[in-house]
Design a protein that fits this description.
58 residues; rod-shaped; mainly alpha; 2 helices
Length: 58
């Protein structure tokens, strides 16, 4: 469930970045890129936590 949330953040960020490019709005582009990076970090954190849970059987 949370992995989908991370991917949603990435998608929303990409949409915001693209819209910022289309409008020539650098601030919106940066905000979109930041949101994509936060989503990617969240996804990687969840993946690492899953591996740890699997290895420790908890």
């Amino acid at each position: 469930m949370m992995k989908g949330n991370a991917r949603t953040k990435q998608l929303k960020g990409k949409m915001r970045e693209t819209l910022g490019k289309a409008l020539g709005n650098k601030s919106m582009q940066r905000a979109g890129r930041g949101e994509q990076l936060r989503g990617k970090a969240q996804e990687m954190t969840e993946r690492a936590a899953g591996h740890i849970r699997q290895r420790t059987k908890h």
